[in-house]
Amino acid sequence: MDPVAAFNQSPIKGTFISHFMLVTLALITTDWMPKIFILYNSFFFFTLLWSLGAPQNCESVQLAAIINLLSILLDLISIAINYGRYHYLDWFGFSLFLLIVNLILRGITTIVLFRIYNDRNDRFGSYGLDRSPFTGTGIRDAFTNVRSNQTGYQDLDANSPPSNVTSSRDQVSSATSNVNNFETKNLSYQSVPDSFNVSLVDDK
Fold first, then answer.
1. If you placed Cys at 141, which of 6, 68, 134, 154 could pair as Cys (CB 3.0 to 4.6 Å)?
2. Where is the composition biased (Polar residues) (predicted)?
3. Which of 60, 47, 49, 68 is nearest to 128 (CA)?
């Protein structure tokens, strides 16, 4: 497989393999770099492995990019300090060449890692949640979409009352009119005829 195509297919894996081989070969030929060089490179390789193991985590990629960016300055300081004391060793020139190539490659891989971080952050966010079903702002849009889909609540400030309130008012009005008609009919049967009142006056 073409190395460029393989790197494009899995840039994190390509970054890990490239830097691991350069650093390892540079230290195997001549061990002239300080111990701190092995320390921060070990942290860098650990964050790359973490990024490969957690493809939805964007924090691991961000940490790897930051360490790789700081390693550029640390490599320059380490080479400048130790060059005068170890330049006479065998294979020193080859080791120095590999470290310079690794130093230049760090600038490229740092840009690649930051692009991967932005891509993961836009899709998954800091909590590893997939943002693709929403508009791109994650949990906030999830709750916004749920609220917009709730149609069971009515606007209390609307000018026209709801239909169920109108029907209830009509029922109350109809019941009130029926009660009034019933009372009117009962009062008509309870009234005493005038002839009955007259007969009672004559008997007295």
1. 134
2. 160-173
3. 60
